[in-house]
UniProtKB/TrEMBL annotation, chain A:
Source species: Salvia splendens
Full protein name: F-actin-capping protein subunit beta
Job of this protein: F-actin-capping proteins bind in a Ca(2+)-independent manner to the fast growing ends of actin filaments (barbed end) thereby blocking the exchange of subunits at these ends. Unlike other capping proteins (such as gelsolin and severin), these proteins do not sever actin filaments.
Gene3D superfamilies from the UniProt entry: 1.20.58.570, F-actin capping protein, beta subunit
Classification via PROSITE patterns: F_ACTIN_CAPPING_BETA
Keyword Phosphoprotein among UniProt keywords: no
Cellular location(s): Cytoplasm, Cytoskeleton
Gene Ontology process terms (BP): actin cytoskeleton organization; barbed-end actin filament capping; cell morphogenesis
SUPFAM superfamilies recorded: Subunits of heterodimeric actin filament capping protein Capz (SSF90096)
Keywords annotated in UniProt: Acetylation, Actin capping, Actin-binding, Cytoplasm, Cytoskeleton
From TrEMBL, chain B:
Organism superkingdom: Eukaryota
Ribonucleoprotein in keyword set: no
Family: Belongs to the F-actin-capping protein alpha subunit family.
GO cellular component, one term: F-actin capping protein complex
Subunit structure: Heterodimer of an alpha and a beta subunit.
Keywords noted in UniProt: Actin capping, Actin-binding
Name of the molecule in the record: F-actin-capping protein subunit alpha
Function: F-actin-capping proteins bind in a Ca(2+)-independent manner to the fast growing ends of actin filaments (barbed end) thereby blocking the exchange of subunits at these ends. Unlike other capping proteins (such as gelsolin and severin), these proteins do not sever actin filaments.
Entries under InterPro entries matching the protein: CapZ_alpha (IPR002189), CapZ_alpha/beta (IPR037282), CapZ_alpha/beta_2 (IPR042276), CapZ_alpha_1 (IPR042489), F-actin_cap_asu_CS (IPR017865)
GO biological process: actin cytoskeleton organization; barbed-end actin filament capping
One MF term in the entry's GO annotations: actin filament binding
Pfam family for this entry, one: F-actin_cap_A
Amino acid sequence: MEAAMGLMRRIPPKHSEAALTALLSLLPHHSADLLSQVDQPLQVLCDVDSGKQFILCEYNRDADSYRSPWSNKYHPPLDDGLYPSQELRKLEVDANDVFMVYLDQSINRYYEGGTSSVYIWEHEDEGFIACFLIKKDGSRTADGRRGYLEEGSWEAIHVIEVVPLEEATARYCLTSSVMLSLTTNDESSGNFNLSGSIRRQMNMDLPVAAGHLCNMGRMIEEMESKLRYSLDQVYFGKTKEMVCTLRPPSEPVQTRLLELISKRRP
Amino acid sequence: MSDEEETQPTDEQKIEIAKWFLLNAPAGEIQYIAKDMKAVLQDETLYITAAAEAFPLYNKSHMICLDFPDRSGEVMVTSFSEIGENEYLDPRTAQVAIVDHVNQVCRRARPANDEELPTPYIEEYRYALDIEVTKYVSEVYPKGICSVHCVNGKDVEEPGMDFELVVVISATRLSPQNFCNGSWRSIWNVEFKDEAQLVEVRGTLQVGAHYFEEGNVQLDAKHECKDSTMFTVKLELEYLSPEDSAHSVTTIICHQETEYLNSLQTSYSKLPDATFKDLRRKLPVTRTLFPWHNTSQFSLRKDIQKSLGLEKKK
């Protein structure tokens, strides 16, 4: 299993779907672990009742069907599907509404458009797991407005494990992954593709008086800004640094070199 | 999904999968992938078959450089230097390396025989270009290696016939302890066309970078310089000395590679601004954090939406 994760860390991100399919076929007994630990590009379906889109992931899947957070129904319909408890379902409904406002209001904030979904499941004792998902397409023809990208997508998965502690507090363990893919294609620079994913974790013990939703929301907002910083550093920092290490740009040197080469001709 | 119903992949399929993983390893990482692949496959025989097929392709594609056993020089493993199964020619020392692909080492070397080498006429051009390119590479790439081969017309003995040389340049930076690896590869085809009295230069440049601390981020950039009208050196081939042609060609290569690096840097400066903001803006316009604590009041939510004129379009 460790070897499988090692492979996923090295395979080019644009091939990650194919890689995961291959690993699932080779290691069927580890499928649960693989599916939950490997981040994949997010897919969406349209809820038949509300016409709204919802994001697919392991947390809303049962057999081959996916549960919509808007109608609480499985698509395609499932007879014996698993559902969260009434209490958790209420939290889930609230979370989806709020998260959508967070995203919508972010029309002028973090995102322009995009789809969000939240799924909540029972966990050990009285705890639960909440999964917040965002999918955003920034290419020329989709939601993006500036149209510089040939292809681009931003996807975020935030999984929070909530465990109640004593004295009206709870422990929140957040694992966040952001997957970013950017492709540009033009005459002078050819085909340029920068993609991949970054994972971070954050744990906090917070009083539940403010409400789970409030606590989780704040953690996610803080995490997203940290992640954005990391992405900037890694995507545009580290990879560029590598390119410049391979072939240091040095204008005075280059010009002199060109001069030398042309001067040497008899 | 009931896994019990999924049929196990066949041996052939397993081999294909293993080959695929190996071939897609980033620069300098195939041995790590090999180790993990062995563990996942749990079948030594299948792995060996896959490795035997994948490693030669990978090594040639990444133009790996191997030392001769007696340290007399090095050989670049490429499709241009391949003269037999597992045999690669180093024109500089006129030796042929016998290569163990899976272990990525040169097992032994033998002198090249005359049929394997270009004619003295061609060798003059090859040698002159090799000198110029080597000088260029040493000045521009901190860890660059290069090689020049004749891929067409190596038996041409005098002016009047076409021939073609290939320049390969490779630079890698491997820093696994810093979770970062990268490579630069260029391949330049130089065609000497007698009838048209010109030298045509075409190139392919490929840059890759991989960062894998707490994640997996990769750059994959490729560019083809195909516009031959730009890089055609029209000269009287009859009077074009090997040294002259070498100067001209190297100047073109230097210019193009510098231009490409500049355009990569431009992409990097444009991307965070145009692209990142396409997907995500740095600070909210209102400059305040989202009011999570107020959201339990749904009338507030509806008010927020109304005031922003937002509709649930989804």
